[in-house]
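Render this sequence as a predicted structure.
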Amino acid sequence: MSWSKSDAEAYLAGTKSLDDLSSSIEPSQPDTSNDQPAAEDAASTVSAQPTADEPQTTSTEENTASSATDDNPEKVETEDKNKTKKSKAYTKEQKTQHAFAKEKSRRKAVEAELAELKEKLKKYEGLSLEHFKNDQEAYNDYKLDRRFDEEKVKRLESEQAELVNEEAAETARKRVEACYPDEAEQAKYQNLIARAESDFESMHPGIGARSFSEFLLSEKDHAIISYLQDSDNAPKLIRHFIHKPEVAQRIMSMNNQYNKFFELKQLENRMLMFEKMNKSKAEQPKVEKKVLPNTGKVAMSTTVNSGERDWTKPISRSEAERMLRNK
């Protein structure tokens, strides 16, 4: 890039910013604005005038062409369909997906540019005036380029953080909608999250955390947070931990991170299985209990009076014969 000596000195001294020197940073291009219209006018004049070999289009021919178009209903119908496709409004979900894909593509571009800039800064780190054969102007250009790249890295890192947060928020929104398709359940979940972040201490006085996020961050290796970031059922696990933080505490107390992930996966599977069983029971048709008709007969009592025989003991031969005689 080309820098003027005064601009370079002002930038290094800190009296001017990159925005002030934007005209100096960007390479200047030759101004052809004055010549452009004349050339365009000349070209349009030449193209407008028919040549000797090119026949002129009369009004009769124009009318014939338009009537030919009108006589072709298939072409007209195709054009109408194309117009309908273009004018078709996108749904909210389609717009969201398009914006999400655009942000993801931009994040990849930022990551690639950041990697390239950091590699360049690392490669040319620590150069001094001697490396430029005491050429002060070349050395100043190097320092300016390096400072410009460092500031660009900061801007890209800030943009990258914003894109990551936006992507995480979009992923969280989709997970909530998938776990709780009903809008009332979504609102109930969001209210629970808001309360857990503002009033978690009063919800669980013995935990010692003012908010649910503070409670999760108290884990040293952040195993639960890492698992929640990758789980599609994170909203259900979060709701479970808010209501029963002692379950999360038990997992946090484990020393091995692999055991933590295994326990979290087991917990997730049990929750899904329990939810599936409840859903299956709810979908089953209710069977009404049949009531036997009253025939007027007295039902046999199944209770054993204190004076009757104990039927849990074996019967003797003589007792059996006496019972048969009495029949």
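Summary. Confidence is low (pLDDT under 50) at residues 26-69. Residues 183-282 form one domain.
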